[in-house]
Structures are given as C-alpha cells and as structure tokens.
C-alpha cells in the first residue's frame, strides 16, 4: 500500500539527498556496481544452477537434482516479483526512466540470488549458510544503495523489493519442502 500512493516523505528526503549524483563519479561507480551485482551475478548464478541441475540428473543423483530443481523454482518465482510487480503498481520513478519503479528489478535479482544461495547452502553446505546470508545481505544493500544514487528508485521501492523476495521466497521454499532443510542436518532434540 505504501508504494501504490505518492512517494512517502522518506522517499522524497532520500531522493533529494542523492539529487544529481547519477551524473557524477558516484553515479558511474554505482552504475558499474549495480550492473555487476544486479545483472551479472544473478545471471551467472541462474546459469550455474541450471547446469548443476542437469549435471546431477545426468549423473543419476535424483535427490540432488530434485533439490536443485526446487531451488531453481524458488529463484524463478522470486525473479517474477519484478516482472509482475511493475505493471501491477505502475509507480513513477524519481527521475525520467523508461520503466516503472516498483519493485526494483536489480534489487529483486540480487535478493533472489541470495535466497537461492542460502537454500543451496542449507541443503549442500550448511556451514556456509551464515556466510551466504552475510554476503548476499551486503550485496543486496549495495545494489539498493546504487539504485538510490542513480536516482531510478525510491527508498521504499528497494525495501519493498527485499520484503517481497523474502516473502515469496520463504513461502515458495516452504511449499516445495525446502524448509527447514534436510532432516539429517537438523539438531537432534536433547
């Protein structure tokens, strides 16, 4: 409901603070970081996930392939947040730009990648789960900040994007039985 109306006061304040930064050095740096973390990393992760899935199928590891397929499904549903959300909310951006503002596709992409990475760690490398949460949490904040510096999103666009990915990702992961993780990895009751 917040993003369906005019920009909130906090949106206006943040947009004013970054006014014109996109034309200077911070904007050029932000563009590179935004493209790298918001487009390249998610694209490479999606390709790697699909390749791993087919490799596990080819080698006959059906359980692993099943887990990878379900993680890929969750990743895809997270990415749909942006595709379906923009025409649904029809929110204008802080500056002239060809697409609608909410949700931020770049933020959705890196947050969705983080969701997939955390699920992969939960199932295949539990000791790396905290590292994945921290790494992709920082990457998501960085992408959100770059989108604000570039003046192409409101603060609530970026926050809403993260919340949407978390909500859809956790719900989907639960439905496809990826949560709370493999039984053999859960702590045994005392």
In words, what does this structure look like?
The protein has one domain. The protein contains six helices and no strands. The mean pLDDT is 88. Pfam families: PAP2. This is Phosphatase PAP2 family protein. Keywords: Membrane, Transmembrane, Transmembrane helix. It comes from Amycolatopsis rhizosphaerae.
Label this structure with key terms.
PAP2/HPO_sf; mainly alpha; transmembrane helix; transmembrane; 70% helix; 190 residues
Approximate strand percentage: under 5%
What is the H/E string? HHHHHH
Distance between the termini: 45 Å
Low-confidence runs (pLDDT<50, min 5 residues)? none
Tell how many strands the DSSP assignment holds: 0
Average residue pLDDT: 88
Structural class: mainly alpha
Alpha carbon gyration radius: 18 Å
Shape: elongated
What is the helix tally?
A: 6
Largest sheet: none
Domain Phosphatidic acid phosphatase type 2/haloperoxidase: 98-173
Pfam families: PAP2
Organism: Amycolatopsis rhizosphaerae
Keywords: Membrane, Transmembrane, Transmembrane helix
SSE topology:
Elements: H1 9-17, H2 25-58, H3 62-89, H4 105-124, H5 129-149, H6 155-175
Helix pairs in contact: 2-3, 2-4, 2-5, 3-4, 3-6, 4-5, 4-6, 5-6
What can be said about this structure in brief?
This protein is mainly α and 190 residues long. It has one domain.
